[in-house]
Write a structure and sequence with these properties.
The complex is a heterodimer of chains A (113) and B (218). Chain A has 113 residues and is mainly α. Helix content of chain A is 70%, strand content 0%. Chain B has one domain. The relative contact order of chain B is 0.17. Classes of the chains: A mainly alpha (113), B mainly alpha (218).
Chain lengths: 113, 218
């Protein structure tokens, strides 16, 4: 049976457990103390995340950074990226199909020969 | 290609033609203004970026257990889509953040874990391309890490301090914003299925090509 006190003299194990438990408690307290100021400071400084999207009313939101180039850029990135991937896939597929047909033809010719 | 492929491709094309109209009609967001509309393509891309590593990881797990080449091919196809949709997500996100947060990038849990997930996708592809014999099983192991990273990406905004909007944004959207969003989500999902089908077709053709080269050598 493991004992968490150092009073027992029957073996060394209880004493070792006590020391380990003390050391662990001290480490946890020190760790919490060391990180708490940083966490509190971060909580005070970090901007709050937006947890809800609300449609704009009659008064449009003020624009500090022009949104249109970013918006158009994003759509060009997505549509352009998808287009080029489909194009690349079609080309690879076409090239492999062409090779398959060529080899199948060659195999047939050899079969006849 | 299967019979449903061409009608589905036409439908997907039409959805992508109609989506900008729906997005243009959707209202601006009160705090972010017009740039919020990047969300309509950013979020579906991000969801596909989460779906692809799950498909890759699940297929890789099956491949490691059963050793069937079909599972390996599916994993490889999904890894390529992980990199594609990851790139779209990681490029459109900063464009939105520049206006909404005033910065292109922050090293918070969501963005960093997404970047890690994208790099795991690249690691899989690089391993398959240059890994030599046996790289299929090594890459499958990498894919498992990519799949495990997905829940972490998803919940990161709810558990860690970040300026990225949390997952609760989507169910709270009003109909005027939610309708175009779900339309785009279905368009991207259909596109994902189509791209997976095309990519799998390529892998089947490559397998056939390898078999033909062997047959010619014999």
């Amino acid at each position: 049976m493991l004992r968490l006190t150092s009073r027992g003299r029957s073996s060394d194990r209880p004493i070792r457990w006590t020391n380990a438990a003390r050391a662990a408690c001290v480490a946890v307290v020190l760790l919490c103390g060391a990180t708490a100021p940083g966490r509190l400071a971060a909580q005070g400084q970090a901007p709050q995340p937006q947890d809800e999207f609300v449609p704009v009313g009659n008064n449009p939101a003020p624009e500090q950074i022009p949104a249109a180039p970013l918006l158009i850029g994003a759509y060009i990135v997505v549509l352009g990226g998808l287009f080029f991937y489909v194009l690349s896939l079609s080309r690879r597929l076409g090239a492999v199909d062409e090779d398959v047909q060529r080899l199948e033809g060659e195999l047939k010719r050899r079969g006849r020969g | 290609m299967p019979k449903w492929f061409n009608p589905a491709a036409i439908l997907c094309g039409l959805m992508f033609v109609v989506s900008p109209v729906l997005i243009a009609r959707a209202p601006d967001e009160s705090a972010m203004g017009m740039v919020y509309k990047i969300y309509y393509y950013h979020m579906p891309s991000a969801w596909m970026f989460l779906l692809a590593p799950l498909v890759c990881g699940f297929s890789s797990a099956l491949f490691l257990m059963r050793g069937r080449a079909e599972d390996d091919r599916r994993a490889w196809a999904a890894a390529e889509l992980t990199v594609l949709f990851g790139a779209l997500t990681l490029l459109t996100g900063p464009l939105w953040a520049r206006r909404a947060w005033g910065t292109w990038w922050v090293w918070d849990a969501r963005l960093t874990s997404s970047l890690v997930g994208w790099m795991i996708g690249w690691a899989y592809l690089i391993l398959r391309r240059y890994g030599g014999p046996g790289s299929d099983k090594l890459a499958a192991g990498v894919a498992l890490f990519g799949a495990v990273n997905v829940p972490f990406i998803y919940i990161s905004v709810n558990y860690w301090r970040t300026i990225h909007p949390p997952t609760t944004v989507v169910p709270r959207l009003p109909v005027s914003m939610g309708l175009p969003l779900w339309f785009c989500v279905f368009a991207f999902l259909l596109l994902f299925v189509l791209l997976m089908t095309m990519r799998l077709r390529l892998e089947h053709a490559r397998t056939r090509l390898d078999a033909l080269y062997v047959a010619l050598d014999e």
